[in-house]
User: Fold these one by one.
Assistant:
Number 1:
Amino acid sequence: MNKYPIFPTFLVIVFVWLCYLSCNQPEENKNTSQKKLHGNAYGETAEFFPSDSVVSKLPFVQAQIETINKILKEPIPIRLFQDSTDNMLKIAQEIALKDPRFLQSVKSPEGKPFRNEIFGVFPARESDYGNRQIGEICKNGGCYRVEMYNYAKNLTTVALVNIPAQQTLSVYNLPYSQPDIPNYLKEIAIKIAIESPEVAKALGGKPIPGAAIMADTKTALNRSRCERSMHLCVSPTFIKGEKALWTIVDLTDFRLVGLRWTFVGDAGPAPAITEKKVQNEMLTECFCKQQTPLDQNGWKMNYMLTSSDGLRISEVTYKGKPVIQSAKLVDWHVSYSNTDGFGYSDAIGCPFFSTAAVVAVEPPKILDLWEGDKKVGFVLSQNFFSEGWPQPCNYNYQQKFEFYDNGRFRVAVASLGRGCGNDGTYRPVTRIAFAGNNLAFHEWSGTDWTKWEKEQYALQKSGTPYTKEGYQYKIGNEGNAFYIEPGKGQFNDGGRGDNAYTYVTVNHLDKDEGESDLVTIGPCCNTDYKQGPEKFIEPNPESLNNVGLVMWYVSQIKNDDTKGKEYCWAESYIKNGTYSTRTYPCFSGPMFIPVHSKQ
Amino acid sequence: MKNSVFVAVLFIILSLTLSGCEKKEKDVRYTGSKAFQDCKAQPPFVQSIGFDLNRSAFSTSEKKSKGLSFIQFPSSPTANDSKLYQHPSWKQFGWLGPMAIDEKGNIYLAPIPVVNVLDNPFKKQVEIYKVNAQTGEMSLYYRLPVEKEPHERNPYGILGLVYDCETSILIATSVSGSERDTVSGGIYSISTKGTPALLDKLEQVDAMGVGVNYLNEEKRIFWGDVRNGDILSVEFTKEGKFEGNPRKECTLADLGQRGDDKPRKIRFNKDGDMVVMGVEFNFNLIAPTEKQETPYSFRYDIFERKWSFIADKSFL
């Protein structure tokens, strides 16, 4: 049958070109930033800016925050509509505010104030009446529609009031919907865009206020969304030549969420540029389709997001010496003890075209690594979210690779909750393929190092012997070896011990045993060593003499929601009238210490 | 006398003609979209299960029950009399998704991975299974002749099924082998008379939901594009061939709570309105606990010759 193109060819070319530009930056900017995204224009602009971002410190934003905090202390925490001096609109608003139905959602069930605001008051139209009875009352005029937005619940409440009768005729809620915003918020949205350095950088200079179009038109305001944060977002758009720069501005947090160039064409309205689209496209183009090199503090490596094995590092060297061939997080097995056989086997990875059940929505981060007040290295970290997190049965996982200036490194992972219950056990499956072809693996017997002759596994338990330094294993060869120190709660990151299975398998050069992307290798709910890596051992374990080695590390962590003891857990709380999340991560993972290093 | 006979005959002819026109007008209604008659029959084997058949249905979306299930719903919101039945053969092909039932009660099903691919290996995602209406036994029925198999960057194969009662043709949509920059999916027309046989294939289409309807008295296949949320259609002949070029009918883009829903299921109600079930779909395995699905309704305007969005029912 006929074939037909899904995109005009030129659009594909333009998109690829934009992506190329966005994922590449001048060489001098690479690998120099700390606490900043590694990389590229998309990355920088799609980042969730922290509360101490440049824009949030500006006086016009601070003034808004002060006003909000003041209103939150009032008995009825609602910012009133102030766009008009029309007295009738004010009266209509006051009538609505007296109706308990209209005020039903302005506070939490515990009485904590939500951030609420009346966005608009309008003379009612026939289509607002809803039924004949109200139509009869309103046919002589005097009826108004009052629209209120609840930032915390992303909820619109609409009241229809009749001024002559001083009565609210009807009230209804529209979940997950946002009314047209008032003029002052339009101005703030444009100002946030204009004042954001990322916008100025993209445009080649700070735009002038009049250059932002569309922010004051209904069409444009309805044409952006923050689907993941569920915040109020709009898109001031700047035209430059034949291109338009869409800026996504979050009016709940007063910050820039992302940027995206489009071509101004005459092919009708383009699909809306939204938070999720920008995040997914940026991650896919910059981190899922290509590796990113990193060169820092003597460490060199490549990293990228995989389809189902999380963030993968590869070709890792320290001061020129090969250390790791590749390391990644293959699976998360989550089982719930109260329901036999109930749980999930989650893969993590790219947001588009992947076998991931929990996906990356933000780019990888490179952060300083501190011990006390001393900077000792850097961390490469990546989070993976379910969109409903931290609601029950949604997940947030974190991977972090710690690289120390003295050659140590740690491969750590954490669940940030919340999962489907307080009886969950998380079993992350980490795979670390070491560099080199002539490696040996030893286990501390209590008195000496015992060499593993064949592929096998061992469990870290209460009676496990450690060296006086706390090491359980040793891997490498004479020229390049590492002690392995499993988590026992000693790493000052909240971890309480790993109770880990460690497997060692041959790193085959002639067959793929997990070096390429691995789909889910084990079921959710096995409570023994059968977590997947054993498939590469049984039924005939191979010799470990004079071969390359792969170490698999499966920690076993029970979650806890007991007050004061929360672990692998997350909970929502109300802060400044909107929901924030408190997390209790359960980090696990071994530290690798060079055998000849002085710590 | 002759005149009166002539007038009477003329009256009868005119009456018949007018009534015929009126009947035709009623059939196609004023929208130009004619509801397609569903012919699905209850499979005879369910009679022996012992369920109350007035409140029972087949399901492939039970969270703790892999494969096909036959569910008896509770008799009241507080009643504790719901039941679940599974024939021993219904779990063997992993998690299942789309389903179509023919006029004899045979059930056609396709697999769909849920959360992971442990029970749904890539190569099996382009298979269609059939539950025998008499015995309830499920077995492999047909394997789509796809050019590219599902893989780790796109674990999906068949995403939609619909049965055309008039021709006994099963239509399947597939996204097998597609990549972010390459469309490899297709729509397959399969004869169910005797041994299943491929009648035609619409190539380079990544489709999910699929439906059949008459539009301006032309039988057309409608499908949802999983990349952009568009609903397209193409003429469908009595011989099971796709005729002419596909055309865009309407879109889910920017509609609803999420704004980027993709059409999972397309059906037409008795008025000819198109009802599209929209879900999030990004070629990954995210599986929200709460099923986020929104029904969107479109009505055809015969004068404008286009579909107009009527409403989404997410708030109702």
Number 2:
Amino acid sequence: MKEFVRYSSLAIVLSVCVASRAADLSFDRDIRPILSDKCFHCHGPDDNKRDADLRLDTYEGATADLGGYSAIVPGDTEDSELIYRIFSDDPDEIMPTPKSHLTLTDREKELLKQWVESGAEYEGHWAFSPVTEPSPPVESHPVDHFIQARQQVAGLAANPPATAQALGRRMALDLTGLPLPAERAAVFEQAHAADPQGAVAALLDDLLASPHYGERMAWDWLDVSRYADSNGYQGDRERTMYPWRDWVIEAFQKNLSWDQFTIWQLAGDLLEEPTQEQVLATGFSRNHPINGEGGRIAEENRVDYVYDMTETMGTTWLGLTLECSRCHDHKFDPISQRDYFALNAFFNQTPVTGGGGDPQQRPHLKLPTDHQLERQQALQQQKKEATQRLAELKKSKGSETQAEHSWSLLEPVAAEADHQQLAIESDLSIVASSEKNPAKDTYRVTYRVPEGVAKLGSLKLDALQHASHTPSPQGLARSDSGNFVLTEIEIAVNGKPLKITGASASHEQNGFPVERAFDGKSDTGWAVHRGKPVVNPEHAIFSPRATVPLQAGDTIEVVLRHDSRHPHHNMGRWQLSASPRLNRSEIELTEARIKSIDDTLKRLDSQVVKVMVMEDMAKPRDTFILEGGFYNQPGEKVSAAIPAVFGSLAEEEKPNRLSLAQWLVDGENPLTARVTVNRLWQMFFGTGLVKTSEDFGVQGERPSHPQLLDWLSNEFVSSGWDVQHVIRLIVTSQTYQQSAVIREEHTELDPDNRLLARSPRHRLPSWMLRDQALAASGLLVPTVGGKPVNAYQPEGIWEELSFGKKKYVRGNGDDLYRRTIYTFWRRISAPTMLFDSADRMVCDVLPSRTNTPLQALTLMNDTTYVEAARVAAQQQGDVDALFRAIANRLPSDREKNLLQQRIGALTEHYRAHPADAKALLDVGEYPLPDGADLPSLAARTAVANVIYNLDEIICRP
Amino acid sequence: MNTSILDYHRSHTRRELFAGAGSTLGAAALSQLLGGTAAAAGPAPSFAKAKRVIYLFQNGGPSHIELFDPKPKLTEMHGQPLPESLIEGLRFSTMTQTKAKLCLGQVTESAPAGQCGMELSSSHLPYTSEIADKITLIRSMYTEQVNHAPAITFFLTGGERPGRPSMGAWLSYGIGSESEDLPAFVCMTSISKGTSCGQIFYDHYWGSGFLPSVHQGVKFRGSGNPVLYLENPNGIDKGVRRGLLDDLAKLNHQQYEAVGDPEIQTRISQYEMAYRMQTSVPELTDFSKESKATLDMYGPGVHQKGHFAYNCLMARRLVERGTRFVQLMHAGWDQHNSLTTEFNNQTRDTDQPAAALIKDLEQRGMLDDTLVIFGGEFGRTPFLQNDINNRARWGRDHHPYGFSMWMAGGGIKQGHVHGATDEFGFHAVKNKMHVHDLQATILHQLGINHEKLTYKFQGRRFRLTDVHGHVVKDILA
């Protein structure tokens, strides 16, 4: 619909231009859009896709000699091939060629003809030209001056001021995303009656000072920076970027100047001795999705991430659709593929590898809590002490690490093997025998505890020699080498399994340490080979964590497993002894302690919040033009530079991200200020002065009010990039404060409201609707910042999309009533109560506003809204109070009558159906008051649900 | 107040037309609105062979060799290296990029099916074999993407990265809905039980990209409410809701009279649509009036919410009620190491329901103008993944260079085989069909010239087929 204005306004322009003097033609306004739209695809800046060697985007190209003729001969329509071709009827000659499915309208042809006639003058694209310095007259508000000038041409006039009630509500929602508290609304309305501008200024001060202002401003910035609490893609692992989100809120809150805001986020790490805050800010570039899908090529991922960083910067600060020039020269804008990769080179210095799905991929900034920090310091201290102690022990005791044991030989009472015979010998050893040594075997032996062994601290397994062994008689098994592999040992005392936690051995073969004999894995084990056939007995000592009391006659059951992939490595003869002492020396204990401290430190570190940030590699990475944008098709090498159309960076040896960021905010950059104030304008009026806020290029829409855009941009820069200054300029204008009523002349002359002869009344963003519902019911928990929370969402909502791998567990208590900005944002499943929100996959600067039945279902039936209705009804006794709590005004008599009748009818209904009343009031966690009249409360809850769904409530006032 | 969804869509498409001044929609009324300046082309319903589409998308990449394109040569050369000339310089997933590439013989059995005698897997597609005479089997598909998400995105949106509208969104935008009570574009997902490797269903697979979000697919959930927030809160019955909505409409109408915003009228009608959906969606999901014969035809899964068979019957019920585009997505076809195991579950769960859907549409006289498509985002390599001596772990890797899919109804030839791969099933060699060709052909069957259904965004006219695609006339009846 918005384009209609462009047409109608163009029609106005045309009626002036075509009818009067061709000298009024502006190349930039009237001609370039036609050429760009209809001709540049084949005759534009892209060197590789140019037909007939003709380019129409430059004067030189258009007037070049094409072999005896030229596309354009300034001042001469007869000799200009372009004019001949566009008016031709011959399908082989006519341009645009029928194959392109593009056609010129009669008006467009006429304009081109007049332009050639008048000399075919070219001028630069407005957005790439320096910001002009319009000087509005002092007697009126500059915003109103520029806005009203266009209204007058169109025969429109601004609406009268909005009511104080509507204005207060509008300001509060626009600036904090929350309705105005009732007391503040009353103060404002009273003050407004006496001194409107004074009241607005005072309210503005209050709102800008509110912590909720920071939250409101941050929302749009999270959309821009594609912030989410998970990686996206398969796996979709949870990340901890929320300290960055909190930093954004705080930065807006303290009104950090936009140049610093820019520099910190793009290059805070490159500042001299950067503060933690400045490094934290660079999380901006790391908010991109991470693809941890198996089979992805790391370098391809890495290249994608760097593309994303580059393009996000381009859209956010330059309003340029850089993506188009990734694979080829831009079809419309003078951004070449070389320019793209020169920008890419600034970000290509990140050490990020692209491999894996680590959601806290380095480089990252660790942000331990005070508590974690204290714990870490304490543990480090303990570790230091233990390490010192260990050194002392080792020095004084040398290599003596074994505890003093007193061994009692255990008597086997039963022994059996899966594949061999086990014989109990007189020396209490057991010998395994069989006709053929089996590949694998398992032994089960029961031992009896003799007198005098009061507790079990260690068990010693002696592997003994036997004549049947290889090499006979010194080997320990009937295997080639006399070696065995004990893959598992299991111990039980009186049938109760005993977990082994420590062990030592007389010898451990490389790769077969004794710990492998109790690791629960059947393919690992303890073995004793020393590089030649085994010729010595060996032993291993196994201990539980703590000693176990024993008495004579108790049984110890031992299972010895030989499941190694090395066949026949079955132990051939052994004895088992018990000792009351644990098998640990002080040295071992100290070592174990250090290991345990390390484990704790590691675990603690894994719990520490880490924010992915930017860093440049010490050794710079070369950047190449990637043909077709493919990661593995490098072409020419390029160095970091700004697009040629903007000149070049000041002489610097090695331009880096900091140089880029500084260039963006050097005050001379034609785009940064315009793009930013345009987004601010869009925030208040729903549509930017440049409607295509994502595209300030040649194909983007020209500003509806170019002078206003430039004037605001100048104000922005000269105020020291003060965002709140621009906001004040906007909010104090009559244009902002006028009423939103739509009259017939509006729909006729300006259906899309680009001339702003009325205040826009678009639907509030869905996150704001939820915040409003919470605030109006009194449920809102206004805590600022912190970990993301899980609000009400339907059960199973994550499971379904992740095949059950992610479970949605909703929070409780305060978590349910936090502002929506703190709701956990899972990239593969955005919060379900939201609609028309950015998908947080790529940078998004353009709001979407649809009007669908699914939205109606959400607002009528989602637990959040129904609970808010109930709690509002609990807090407010009568219709007047209930209506005022939600709408910031008293109901009209008609409204009041209607709703009261409904309450009456429903109270009766619920008296007749008390179970229904109870069911309705059972919604949500917030407690019901004791002794409430349930049918009446249910009726008022239902009516509050209606009020929450009123167009007046869900639209900007 | 009884604004129909048609009015709703009309009002939206009209708005769109203004919004994308260059967008080309066919309705004469719309071109009039622009004073005839737009290149009016767009849908010409009288030429349209299909009125609606059911896309049975098989996520993961079903093996064309096992199912649709038997290759005796592979069996003959089982265990021997594939000729180097086939593979040289090609890209595979990192899982097999550097590994030896040994031929793996077909692990299923095939036989000629139907009167037409097209060869299909007799062991794994017994039901599809019964409808061989109804379908066109395309054996010469190829794509440009070798990983799941980009390849699926490419099939469904024409681009490999998220951001463009999906096919259903284009159709909703281009020709709107036929239903007053149900959305124009619905998506449902399923996965075989016990699947170890399922791909995530990203919502951009049914997204509207840069088109207004009113065109995005409505995802019906596989459990609980098929539509989120469809049910009234406990304790608010239909009668109470009606009364509340009457009040809401009255108050909103009063607001309309006070502020004159036409959007309020749309809002009132959307709340009414929501109310109708509260009836139409439960009615849609109520299978009690389906005959036993019909239910049996789809197989036992039809009784299980979230099962492919259930979704197939839902698809028929949706198109019956006027939904334009139904996109079913069944995951789990990623047989890297499960060709002799999980693969059996995949075919068991999809073969019967997909064939039943064709028969069911036919018995209702709806097959002629309903286009059904069955296929994945790529095929699987003729060579083996994993150890040739371990049959239980045999698998095939992702394969974009040649694979199969089938289409039926909506003016597509019956009992026809289109194109072929080489003797190894490696490269599509005869009548090669690119993804954009498939998209162009689908749009063509709906009466839309794929080069003319465009939307201007960021200064460029986008279309489903990017700047490529040809209608494949050979498969049209």
Number 3:
Amino acid sequence: MSITPPSQVIWWKEPIHSIEARWVMVALVWCLILFLWMPYWHIYGKQNLSNESYRTTPAAFEGKAQAMVNKYTVRTETDEKIPVVAPPAGSDVYLVARLWSWWPILELEKGQSYRIHISSLDYQHGFSLQPTNMNLQIMPGYETVVTLTPTQTGDFGVVCNEFCGIGHHNMLGKIIVK
Amino acid sequence: MAARMFRQCPDSGLYFHKSAESLMKAHAVLGVVFLLVGGLYGLLVAATRAPGIHLLSAESFYTALTFHGTAILIFWVIFFEMAVLYFASSTLLRCRPATPRIGWLGFLLMLIGSLLTSVAILRGNSTVMFTSYVPMQAEPTFYLGLILFAVGALIGCFIFLGTLVVAKAEKTYDGSIPLVTFGALTAAIIAIFTIASGAVILIPTLLWSMGLIAHIDPAMYRVIWWALGHSSQQINVAAHVSIWYAVAAIVFGAKPMSEKVSRTAFLLYILFLQLASAHHILVDPGIGSTWKVFNTSYAMYLAVLASMVHGLTVPGCIEVAQRKKGYTNGLFEWLRKAPWDNPVFSGMFMAMIIFGFIGGITGVIMGTEQINLIVHNTIFVPAHFHATVAVGTTLTFMAITYFLLPVIFRRQLIWPSLAKWQPYIFAGGMTIMILLLLGAGTLGVPRRHWDVNFTEATLHFQFAGTAVSLLGMAVIGAILASVGGALFCLIAVGTLLFGKKLDSGASLLSSFGFPMAASSYTIDKPDPLGRTPIESSGHSDAHGAKGTFVLALVFLATFVVYFFINAKYLSSLWPMS
């Protein structure tokens, strides 16, 4: 029994059931497929995580975002006058995560690619583009860079899905795709 | 010293050492207290999350969530696991526990630590969630409590190892240690690694919260913290799989299909599972894809393989034992004729099925580098670990408790007919909640979020109606599961206090020496534990595990289909590189 010592002192010498051997082989093959799928998707898949990120500081990152906002703001939205920024296709776009907003609002064009830089000025945050459902961990001191190509038009929400304090549930941003 | 310290349970035949039994009782009772309180907070969380009820204020919700996670994921399971370690070493090997007095020091540290951290959270100044990601800061006592708790648990692990040494030296058993003790040994080894990782990250974080260190790098914190946070859940896996084998032996007299396969699978846990912090940081900046791909899988998911092996060998050994008893018709007579009204079996078996089919499969989905992109930090994640910890581990611990209550406390279960239903209520409620939350998470609903309708936000966003309804309906499952959990606590505590005495001298504190008269500890030294008898028939086909193999293939098919559905979903997203 499982609660008494094995029949043989050297348990390694006990025989294996044929069903077990068969299952181990089947399971091992599936586990190898699971592993190989990841490099496969890096080569043939279109949704891959970027390996590009930099160390930064809140002040440096905010400065770059502000420069972009000054250059490409097309209008403001809401009473808080949140800038809506329409950067040219292919350019570097900055998105600031802070307590408790994603700043500024981005206006992108469908089918064009953008280099999106994201960093936090304070706590950790979760970039969650909805309803497209793409999720990235955002940290202070680290600048994530991903190249995104919107394939749908409309208004998209940027939800924060990493707990960041009492106003966490009010942290909502917007990306407009035209 | 020739004090008589052992007693033999007349029903189970197990030998209990007085000191080990006291330590087991203390740890298990404290564990159940945290299950009760932590579970209650879980219900508050679920009732707040449902948009129709929205019970707590935002501030209380986040505090309740922090406490629920810490109380269940750390305090309940580890207190209970310490009891499991004493059981798997002292009781199963018929051996005196090494240094029981130091065992009480460990218990005391765990008690003080758990209280310090709980008070720090419930005071409201340490609402940082179970993960306590820096630079969000908790009170120093939050971290200090966790460190003290971990030191206490570490002492428990070393006493377990010491007891194995004593048992070997005093020849209390013949041959190799039993499989269940072997599994508990892997749990203890993983626990030591886990606690060491915890020390590496929590001690600097404590100093930082006291103002003695200026900066903790958030990326480094996540990498090392998860070597604590995830590995601690691997202690649970090793512990509850050991208990599955124990239940198979206790209820069916089952012997492992083969010692070699089951033990190698446990070894794979040590080698490949405990370092699995990688799958928590798959969408983090600063870490390259090569590192992520390799470390989330170790090139071939050998830890997943280990669980898939146990998934076959545990029901397989039950099937073999049942077929020997004559339940040989068709593929599944052995399963149909299993004692489904015995909560020890039904709890364990449902825990295994839900752990594998839901917890295991969703875990691999989350642990695949690119697919993590559609899951990370959504409510899919808590759904996954409720399948693994709340059902896999917790329901297994509940099941073994039904066996241990009469054996250790020598009292009959009160309300046996309620106990019969309890595993179904708990597992049923949990499964409803888990499936609905998996659905909501797949539609993007965030975890740890007070208001998914964003009513107070400056901007506006509306999740799909289906997503919000799924989240709302999940509370029904949560309430049902809470009823099941409360019933368990009620039956356990009620049995301790009011259960019919099986021995005239049965008393809650008998192992502590109260009452002094008529001690049931009358045995000086039990006979050494003999080896499992060799079976003459060998492994004939008539006693094979054909039904289990079919179940395993159904599992594999589910796994493959669900994996590729998620891969297809990923391919529909905006291209990203």
